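Entry for protoporphyrin IX containing FE complex. Fields follow.
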Amino acid sequence: MYAYDEIDRTLVNERVSEFRDQVKRRLSGELTEDEFKILRLQNGVYLQLHAYMFRVAIPYGTLATNQLRALAHVARKYDRGYGHFTTRQNIQFNWIKLAELPDALEDLAKVGIHAMQTSGNNMRNVTSDQWAGVAPGEIEDPRIWSELIRQHTTLHPEFSFLPRKFKIAITASDHDRAAIRIHDIGLRLIKNEKGETGFEVLVGGGLGRTPFIAKTIKHFVHGRDILSYIEAILRVYNQYGRRDNIYKARIKILVHELGIEKFSREVEEEWQHIRNSSLQIDDEVIEDIRSRFTYPLYEKLPHMPDELRQAAADPDFEAWRKNSVAPHKVQGYSIVTISLKPTGGPPGDATAEQMDALADLADKYSFGEIRVGHEQNLTLPHVAKRDLPALWKALDKLGLATPNVNLISDIIACPGLDYCSLANARSIPIAQELTRRFANHELANLIGRLHINISGCINACGHHHVGHIGILGVEKNGEEVYQITIGGRADENAALGTLIGPGVKFDEVADVVEDIVEAYLALRERPEELFMDTVKRLGVEPFKERVYATR
Amino acid sequence: MPLVKGGKITDDSFAKLAVDTPLPESGDLLVPAERFLGEADALLKRSGKVGVIWPNNRDISELVPYLGKIVAVALVFPTFRDGRAYSQARLLRERYDYRAELRATGQVLRDQFVFMLRAGFDAFEVKKQADAEAFMQTAKRYSVFYQPTGDGRITALHRRMQLRHSEGVGT
Ligand code: HEM
Ligand code: SF4
């Protein structure tokens, strides 16, 4: 865990008081809606279909239990008793009153949580691997660097009015759980031949109307130079990024229009001017940040405790353990993923009661720490294996033990027409229907790892381009129509999915997904061949045939 | 539009010269970039002081040869959402060591003062009277800064190191 000190807390409080003043000026009419809009966005406040939506940052996905309780408190006191975890390590509340927002922010500030830059054309919440610090084989805890970058990019005086939003993601593992290749800047922590820590830097990824997978701009930037290198990229983008057309304003378009070679020459030239400036980070500074991350005092525990051996006889426990429990870097411990995808429920929602209860469980079983991942699930990062059966029972009581992590009903979906003013189509009801269709655990297990992503419009909040099966809602002649892609992925081999054919109607989507799955089961060479491998081997054609032969 | 300089609302001694009006004999002038570059010699020979209005989409390095001879650079925020002039300001101050007046013009609102001060602006043509009056109060809103910029304020990272070292003394 990272502990905010007095300096961080002061800044957050100063921000809250500034926003209180801004809300006051808006309510008195001193600020026009146009002027206020950017200010509220910079504090995570959107005007949505029904009400103001409030997006709170969970930097690099790490939460302490008192912070999770504070989120539950906000859900209960200022909203309708629940919150929605998103694909960007944020939580959103959908029914907040503008006049109460400063109070909600103040309540959150008390536990070091804020909503700074969760929206607007600035540098957004830095995201990272939800397994950071506990994943076996990682280079080092990427959150140390995430925190350095979080600080550097917060209220940055040069980059708070960029052409468009800007997202940075960091991973330190071979297996990329932070989806760095679909971010404006993706950072992969590596070591060079001398054993020094640095980054492979990728740039220009993103989804939305014009999706791109990020390209490597530099194979190694030393850790001490990472801030100056990021600053150089941003300065080039701030000056040359397009502002004439909102759809072309993201850095991915600039990189695409200039070409990565020309873009990287511009960045290199800028970087040479500033790399030896005060932006250079000395080891002492990094050590200082490192020292404010505390790690649990792990016990020496057996690899296979009796409790686990006994519980293995229970098939329900085993079903959950198989997909929710992952190896931890410390023997005797596990990383536990908590599915926020119950059968028939909206993906990513949690009630205030669930949040409070989870905080209690994290105190009891995970050294008071919780993580949020981009798959809209939560994680308990340090669970002793002997506690797994007890934890599972407790989660089950809360409706949080659905054994579907990484399976077909572990769906990522944006809010769509039910909440979002930009939507063309519904997302949540499609997700709900699919979780019902694939509620049978044996069938889901037979299918194996398969990610479905749903977006209610081209903005791609549900990351449909990178779903193994991607579903995009569009509007055609006043009707909701859904385009289906297959073969996308957001991991270290990130790829954009391929459209399989004409869009289908709302009522047909679940049938089409079933057809695709049946086709896969018939086509796979062996049970271990995952959906993605079959698609890679055969392309979209056989799936297209299966889906459209009878339509 | 009120001008804030040195933290106070002050009179503007500069007149803005249009692109096509004849050059007045005397008086301080702010001249659009295009015209300045075309008539630099004539402009600098006059008795009045000269400043330049530099658009936010033109490379600021073109102005570098003249920086020692002009007394003000006015950068432009066509809307407060367009942040290009922040980069230009920092380049002028930090890379090209420009020390004379750096003025923010256009849609300048109180909510940008802190960012502008940190980027190196020291003069502000403020859009609203109430914002101009709130300048000092707004400018002091923040006491913590995470990034190093040319304004020389100590960053949070370095403040922590100082605290740590002072705590370490004698222990
Ligand atoms: C409810 C109101 C929401 C609104 C109005 C909204 C608006 C937008 C817009 C306009 C974009 C497109 C930006 C662009 O790339 O040009 C976008 C992208 C995105 N949104 Fe949302 N969004 C909402 C909710 C959400 C939610 C709930 C999530 C997470 C589940 C989310 C996650 C994302 C992500 C990850 C992208 C990134 C696409 C990319 O990388 O380019 N948004 N959103
Ligand atoms: S993808 Fe479209 S519909 Fe879905 S949340 Fe984003 S903007 Fe709204």
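NOTE: The helical segments of chain B are 33-45, 84-95, 113-119, 129-133, 135-139, 156-168.
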